[in-house]
Amino acid sequence: MKRPFAATVWREGNWYFFQCLEVDVASQGETEEEALANPKEAMELHLAPSCATRPPQVRTIKVEVGAA
Fold first, then answer.
1. What's the half-sphere exposure (Cβ side, CA atoms, 13 Å) at 29?
2. Bridge partners, residue 8, by sequence
3. Rounded to an integer, what distance in angstroms lies between the CA atom of residue 47 and that of residue 43?
4. In degrees to the nearest 10, what's the CA dihedral of 2, 20, 24, 64?
5. Full residue range of the structural domain in which residue 60 is found
6. What 3 state SS string does the chain have?
7. Which pLDDT does position 37 carry in this prediction?
């Protein structure tokens, strides 16, 4: 099944950047076509059903915020 996703593509210098607005996937390429083609495999892997052999461990981390 194919599903459409909203994405943005923009140019900075010599590179084109791709960012999917619905899934946390981004990519870049030397052409707009390359920037759009690269994330297809990454999105397919990101959206594939999990095949972990054991559940992941959830951990808590502490991060300093607002420090000057």
1. 15
2. 19
3. 6
4. -170
5. 1-68
6. CCCCCCEEEEEECCEEEEEECCCCCEEEECCHHHHHHHHHHHHHHHHCCCCCCCCCCCCCCCCCCCCC
7. 83
Query: How much is the mean pLDDT over the chain?
Result: 86
Looking at residue 36, its pLDDT comes to 84
Mean pLDDT confidence for 12-38 = 89
Contact 34, 27 (CB under 8 A): no
pLDDT band at 68 (very low <50, low <70, confident <90, very high): low
Q: What are the C-alpha distances in Å from 66 to residues 7, 60, 63?
A: 32, 19, 10
Number of domains in the chain: 1
Give the C-alpha distances (Å, rounded to integers) separating 11 from 26, 29, 53. 13, 10, 41
